[in-house]
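Reopening this one. Same input as before:
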Amino acid sequence: MPHKVIILQRVVPHYRYALFERLWREFGWNVITTNQVPDYGPLKYNRLIHDDEPFIKRYRFEFPWKSNLYRCDIPIRRILADTQATAVICEFSMHMNTTYLLPAIRRLRGAPTLLFWSHGFNMDRGLASPFQRLVQRPRALMCRMADGHVCYSEEGRQFLGQYIDKERLFVAPNTLDAETLRNEAGQVTPMSAPGRPHIVTVGRLTADKDFPRLMRIFRALLADYPQAALTLVGDGPDIENVRAAAGDELGRRIFMPGAEYEESRIAAYYGSADLSVLSGAAGLGVNHALCYGVPIVAYDRTPAGPHHHPEITYVVDGVTGVRVAEYTDEAMLKALRDFLARHADPRTDFAESMRSYVDEHLSLDSMIREFAEVDAFIRRRNTRSPRPEPASPAVDPHRS
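Same output, byte for byte:
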């Protein structure tokens, strides 16, 4: 039987380029994505790959609801007929028609082998309370219909492991091309720090990132460190709230240079940083900071928030930074005071542990190693079983 694997993605962000190219070169996998993206809604803010590439094939995907760009209809039957795929690794979303059609096709036809790829659970809803765990259950039951699942973090695998056999679950961290970023940093002169300690945070200014909170906390920190500086690189719909919270320190101890997409400029900002602070939802900014050797102080998941993306798991106490257990301004302020009292030079203190962690967990090679396991799993599955095996009874996650 030929081995033809396709990856289905609504859009292909720029940071995925290196990964998808490697998957194509090493395993022959192709990416199937849309040939057009609506110019409204959250997807327009992604830096997407629009150029033609030998490993990217494009079809017309429909985004029928202007109010919900995550709703997407994919011509999956045509794609399967054209590609003759023996396996599909499909982005998972309750808003995508493939989430329902692909398991049905797999059951009726016995092919193709199907794996979903996702966070594992809905990060916006969380898992902190019994109710939050209950509303995640329909998602988990849909995931169970596939042959396997690729998660972005161990956290996602642990959740799905309550419903799906562990040998059908994989973790491929949502990461960047760490080696390229390090090489970029080595060729760039860091910007002059406007103060010490210098906090640098890069991210889109959206409500879930809660950057007004960062402004409040930093202004309070100035009482202990009057020469400190905060540089927030980014733009977005919450910018006026952030500026208002910065108050009269904007342009004095707080600097907001705007959005920056040139990697050399981002490297220059991070090159001058002593640490990065996340006051709301964590995303790929975690990977960026760690790849550039900058330790992170961030809130942990709590019942009150923030609703982190999987990257928060890469903030490891004493290894890559510190996680703050209580979601309050006072708790973060105390954590920063303690952190700076213990680490006069945070980058030096964390340099060795961060480099080791990135090499082991966040490098492109680490993702390829996990996808090699996925490739082997698909080959075994196609040889052994024409249909998904019934899921074994799972432990009731609400009983404990």
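So the earlier flakiness isn't reproducible anymore. For the record, The chain has two domains: 5-175+363-384, 178-361.
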